[in-house]
């Protein structure tokens, strides 16, 4: 019951932030052309760049230590007030940037069988708006917030990384290669494939 209430409160906060002009500053992670949306191509570039930066062994695969070290740096970046905790606003600001005045749509909450980009792209237009981004990352925040106090400690964040790693490691060999990484975060660029098909006609 508590989890349902907390998720509802966080989702309401997400909608409140999404309708407050200028509530958050910045852009969605990976939005290279700064058009306010994350395209599938931009998401692939971001995933590739992040993988390369974490692959300290330069062996084209990530072990749990590399993922933990690389993603723990993100926890520190999100903690803008320096209290060693990440609240929902800091979390959403980092991942999703500025909140638009549009209504957010509910993202899928069922496991991680679908790539994260596809989960965010709820209207299936091939790009992710800040509101769509916020819907998914609000849920991700709630899932990581073990004690439901509205803040993520370094430990809670690390525990969520262990779960992500397990989801990414499709062949269960205790390492994540670039294909598994990209499949988890992005999947296939369906909209771009469709556009190329239409261009050929």
Helix-strand layout with pairing:
Layout: H1 2-19, E1 38-39, H2 40-54, E2 61-62, H3 64-78, E3 86-87, H4 88-96, H5 116-120, E4 127-128, H6 130-144, E5 151-152, H7 154-168, E6 176-177, H8 178-185, H9 190-200
Antiparallel strand pairs: 1-4, 2-6, 3-5
Strand element count: 6
Quaternary structure type: single chain
Beta fraction: 5-15%
Number of domains: 1
**Helix percentage:** 55-70%
Describe the 3D structure.
With 201 residues, the chain is mostly helical. The chain has one domain (2-200). Helix content is 55%, strand content 6%. It is built from 9 helices and 6 strands. The chain has helices at 2-19, 40-54, 64-78, 88-96, 116-120, 130-144, 154-168, 178-185, 190-200; strands spanning 38-39, 61-62, 86-87, 127-128, 151-152, 176-177. The strands form 3 sheets. A two-stranded antiparallel ribbon has the order 1-4. Helix 3 packs across helix 7 (154-168) and helix 4 (88-96) crosses helix 6 (130-144). The longest helix is centred in the first third of the chain and has 18 residues, at 2-19. The relative contact order is 0.18. Residues 1-25, 99-113 and 191-201 have low confidence and may be disordered.
Provide a quick synopsis of the model:
Helices cover 55% and strands 6% of the residues.
Question: What are its keywords?
Answer:
single chain; about 200 residues; mainly alpha; two-stranded antiparallel ribbon; 9 helices; about 55% helix; disordered N terminus; disordered C terminus
């Amino acid at each position: 019951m508590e989890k349902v209430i907390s998720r509802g409160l966080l989702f309401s906060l997400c909608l409140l932030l999404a309708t407050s002009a200028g509530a958050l500053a910045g852009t969605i992670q990976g939005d290279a052309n700064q058009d306010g949306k994350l395209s599938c191509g931009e998401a692939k570039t971001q995933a590739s760049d992040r993988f390369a930066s974490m692959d300290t062994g330069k062996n084209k695969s990530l072990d749990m230590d590399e993922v933990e070290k690389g993603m723990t740096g993100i926890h520190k970046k999100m903690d803008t007030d320096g209290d060693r905790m990440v609240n929902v606003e800091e979390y959403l600001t980092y991942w999703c940037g500025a909140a638009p005045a549009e209504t957010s749509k509910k993202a899928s909450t069922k496991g991680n069988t679908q790539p994260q980009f596809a989960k965010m792209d709820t209207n299936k237009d091939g790009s992710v708006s800040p509101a769509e981004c916020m819907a998914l990352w609000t849920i991700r925040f709630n899932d990581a917030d073990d004690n439901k106090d509205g803040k993520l400690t370094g430990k809670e964040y690390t525990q969520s990384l262990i779960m992500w790693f397990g989801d990414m490691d499709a062949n269960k060999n205790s390492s994540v290669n670039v294909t598994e990484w990209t499949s988890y975060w992005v999947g296939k660029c369906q909209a771009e494939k469709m556009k190329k098909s239409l261009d050929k006609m």
